[in-house]
Write a structure and sequence with these properties.
The protein contains 24 helices and 24 strands. The protein is an alpha+beta fold. The chain binds 2-(butylsulfanyl)adenosine. Residues 82-84, 115, 117-118, 122, 175, 227-228, 288, 307, 310, 312 line the site of 2-(butylsulfanyl)adenosine (IVH).
Length: 670
């Protein structure tokens, strides 16, 4: 193909993909199958790879993010990012309405724009000549962080606008949110590795947008609603009409925005959403009311740090009072202790609440929560309700300060608290019953060994003395299961069959199933791919573990210590004897050309992305490591490699190879 033809093809693929993106992520009305979309994307990726001269920062191929560290640049906002005044009742809204009427005069008619108040993190995005230019966080309102690389991964944010009637430059502001389903999945993954879950979708969204690696951000599936245009040449005086235009240009504008002719219609909107908000797939914490005319907005101006032309009405967080009857201390699979409150049953958000989270010892102390106290319970985006305060006026004279437990409630071992960590731990991991049961439940779970054995059966097997560790599953006999309460011939056979089938579960899932602290499914995959066999992981020292891409000190120490424990070694030997998979199975297209070689990748490349090069190394049996050491075999260097790194490479006498040399290297010999 001639260059011009290729460029035209690239342009038309980009346009087509961006239309499909808009239909899918903004309108929720896809017009092609996922397969066709992927094929088109692959074609574009291939063409861009062959012709790096046509690379474009705003190509739909950037949505997967780049696997490198972002250090954010501080950017001054062209227009400060202000906050809104809050109101909590209709009286205050009436005052707001009266203030406006007084300033603009009774003869001027005007409309309000009513919008949902999205509970996420604010973002300001600049467009130049119809292209995404820069995205900046709110920061202190004057200056924020340039998080462009991260925002580019959000599929509902257009990189190239549609049509041609947009201003040459303008800014659009909105809220980055994490939808409930994404939030739940993310937190369940964090719980799998006993990482503290995010308290609510708002924290998860703001934490994600500040992540250093945009490839990680891309995986978190954020979304964005846009609600405010700024610039000199906006199409209309009406805020609503401008947003309608923005929708045509490709932005995600809420379907729920409504114009109101007078304040009573605003009240109707609020009443409607106060009830309906529980059906939304994301959190809102109120309603925003804006004077619709830009001209009048300018007339009204600002007071201090918020506009006179807009205000927010905040929904009251459902909060109820109840009596704290007792505190349970739960022991997790890794020995982490979580305090849980038992409450006098109360109604909250339409459900009966009997238990609430007390988080940790510090929070109990800070709020001075005591048994028999009247406590306030709230439900936000959290999974279980939490105690947010104490009504001290109702406290009786015999109340006593809560003394946090110092011994494990299950096995009585002394609890320890590691410096800097919020939770206490029981370290008797090998004999503490809830830890054994927790480890077993994790082992059988769907993402791990997928054995058809619920909590009740684990309990029954444990109580009958048949299950002292995970390896005991493979020693269970038909009689032992059959004799459990509720089991019949068929159900006992089924469980045995399910245990038998788990022997073919691939190595990375077996590794995850072992329940090593901080080794979630993603880390298990990385370790399995990198070391290939359990024996190699067991023999690795901390240095070799941290050398592995994506494995930090904390994970490395946890893995190293796990395999220095005699009982763990015995369990693994038993599992090996049972026939579980402890080696990675090479799949089609994989070779052993690079077996035993360690690579460090650095710089920017023209033909492949860093991620692709890493994948190619792994697929050919090599290992990616994060830093240069004397055991590094090859330094795969792109452009702009830092001088200090190069110096180290030369000092160790490591072989430096280019992208082309690398591609040559992995070509299979005929
Ligand atoms: S308009 C000058 N509209 O609420 C006013 N803000 O306290 C610009 N927010 O910082 C903001 N939904 O992060 C506006 N529909 C909406 C909103 C909204 C959520 C957030 C935004 C802002 C904060 C105001």
């Amino acid at each position: 193909m001639k260059r011009e033809k290729i460029f035209n093809k690239i342009k038309s693929l980009r346009q087509e993909l961006s239309n499909h993106n808009y239909n899918y992520y903004v309108l929720s009305q896809p017009t092609v199958s996922d397969y066709d979309y992927d094929m088109m994307l692959k074609e574009l990726e291939a063409l861009e790879k062959e012709h790096p001269e046509f690379q474009d920062l705003n190509s739909p191929t950037v949505r997967v993010g780049a696997d490198r560290d972002n250090t954010f640049m501080q950017v001054k906002h062209d227009y400060p990012m202000l906050s809104l005044g809050n109101t909590y009742n209709f009286e205050e809204l009436k005052d707001f309405d009266n203030r406006i009427k007084k300033i603009i005069g009774p003869e001027t008619s005007f409309k309000y724009a009513c919008e949902l108040k999205y509970d996420g993190t604010a973002i300001s995005i600049k467009y130049k000549n119809g292209k995404f230019f820069q995205a900046v966080t709110r920061g202190d309102g004057e200056k924020g962080d340039d998080v462009s690389d991260n925002v580019r991964t959000i599929r509902s944010v257009p990189l190239q606008l549609q049509g041609n009637d947009f201003p040459v430059t303008f800014e659009i502001r909105g809220e980055i949110i994490m939808p409930h389903n994404v939030f739940k999945e993310l937190n369940s993954e964090r719980e799998d590795i006993e990482e503290t879950p995010f308290a609510n979708p708002r924290n998860a969204a703001s934490g994600t947008i500040k992540m250093k690696n945009s490839a990680e951000v891309a995986k978190r599936k954020l979304d964005a609603f846009l609600y405010f245009l700024l610039g000199k040449d906006l199409p209309s005086d009406s805020h609503t009409e401008n947003l309608n235009k923005a929708k045509i240009w490709g932005f995600k504008i809420s379907e729920n925005n409504k114009q109101a002719n007078e304040i009573n219609e605003v009240f109707e909107f609020i009443n409607y959403w106060d009830k309906k908000r529980e059906n939304l797939p994301y959190d809102i914490d109120g309603i925003v009311i804006k004077v619709d005319s830009k001209y009048l907005q300018d007339e009204l101006g600002f007071t201090g740090k918020s506009p006179r032309w807009a205000i927010s009405y905040k929904f009251k967080a459902e909060r109820v009072a109840s009596k704290l009857l007792s505190i349970d201390y739960q022991v997790g699979r890794t020995g982490a202790i979580t305090p849980v409150a038992n409450l006098e049953p109360i109604q909250l958000d339409g459900t009966t609440v009997k238990r609430a989270s007390l988080h940790n010892a510090d929070i109990i102390k800070e709020l001075d929560i005591r048994i028999n106290d009247t406590v306030f319970v709230e439900k936000g985006g959290e999974i279980i309700p939490k105690i947010v305060g104490v009504d001290k006026s109702k406290r009786t004279s015999d109340s006593a300060e809560t003394i946090y437990i110092s011994n494990c409630p299950a096995c009585n071992s002394k609890l320890v608290r590691i410096d800097g960590e919020a939770l206490h731990y029981c370290t008797n991991s090998l004999a503490c019953p809830p830890q054994i049961k927790g480890k077993t439940e994790h082992f059988v779970s769907r993402k791990a060994m997928d054995i058809n054995c619920g909590e009740a059966t684990v309990n029954a097997l444990f109580n009958a003395g048949h299950l002292n560790n995970i390896a005991d599953f493979y020693k269970l006999t038909f009689e032992q299961i059959y004799n459990l309460e509720g089991f019949k011939e068929k159900s006992a056979d089924n469980l045995l069959e399910s245990i038998n089938q788990s022997k073919s579960i691939p190595f990375e899932r077996v590794l995850f199933a072992l329940g090593i602290r901080f080794v979630g499914s993603t880390v298990a995959k990385v370790l399995a791919k990198s070391f290939k066999t359990i024996d190699d992981i067991m023999q690795a020292n901390i240095e070799q573990l941290t050398e592995t891409d994506e494995i930090g000190e904390r994970i490395a120490e946890s893995v190293f210590n796990f395999f220095r424990n005699e009982l763990n070694i015995k369990i693994i030997n038993d599992l090996k004897t049972a026939g579980l998979q402890f080696e990675i199975i090479e799949s089609e297209g994989e070779t052993n050309i690079l077996k035993g070689t360690k690579f460090v990748i650095s710089g920017t490349f023209t033909k492949y992305s860093r991620n692709e090069l890493k994948q190619m190394i792994e697929q050919n049996g090599g290992k990616n490591t994060s830093s240069v050491s004397k055991s590094t075999d090859y330094f795969l260097a792109g452009e702009n490699v830092g001088p200090s790194k190069l110096e180290k490479v030369k000092k160790f006498g490591i072989k430096i190879i280019s992208e082309d040399e690398f591609v040559e290297m992995i070509k299979e010999q005929p």
